[in-house]
Hints:
The chain is an all-alpha fold. It has helices spanning 12-48, 59-83, 86-112, 114-130, 136-149, 204-207, 216-226, 228-272; strands spanning 280-281, 284-285.
Amino acid sequence: MATGEVRYCSRFPYLCLKFTLIAYSTIFWLIGASVLAVGIYAEVERQKYKTLQGAFLAPAIILILMGVVMFVVSFIGVLASLRDNLCLLQVFMYTLGVCLILELTGGIVALIFRNQTMDFLNSNIRRGIRNYYDDLDFKNIMDFVQKQFKCCGGEEYMDWEKNEYHSCTAPGPLACGVPYTCCIANKTTVMNTLCGYQAMKYNRHEAQKIIYPRGCTNAVIMWFLDNYTIMAGVLLGILLPQFLGVLLSLLYISRVEDIISEWNSSADVLLERPEIEFASKGCCRCYPGIESDA
């Protein structure tokens, strides 16, 4: 009885990588679809009120862009891993790698040029403050940040001078005041929405008796520095899945290339020895090999 070894009958590494990559791509494909759906819904609602047209100040647009990128890239990953398509696998891997590098580069550049980054953030917040009552998205975000982080405006509370209703030259009770979300918590049960009345007429020392005068940009950054473990967790949550995707893709591409190489070698043997058949053993189908002959 002549016996020959059947190659790739034990394919656990290949199958493990394949199903792991399929699961990884499918999860992020579904997440991308969900983010895209939420973004589209939010944008439709935003357009009903004709709110501010600006990507930085419109979370709906940011969600749509993120959703489209995640959906398309993840779909490529699902299709590539299902079909063992080397070209699509490489596109998936390189796209994830480029996104990862861009995020890391952006973070490093923002840290190196932190003063310019702060100026950029503050200028965009002032743009939002100018349209505070017209852009419901920005208004809700600004109110939440001011209440949560106990701050007012972007760089400082005087940023509210940019708003036409809160400007000191404006008519009405809001003139020279700030929104109630800047105020120190009221002692009364009923919220006083005019608690920031005439606050911008006071200097910083006097204003801090009724409002939080520090800017929200500094307040948020200080909160992150004080809670560095949370910040590290957020960064890992963003970067680690992408790195894992690049690593899985690289390993799977190498495995598929090995299998193709072995397959081509087996095809050459088949041409020389037609008695070799495709074998099926147990739960796995093997690549061409030599069956035992009685």
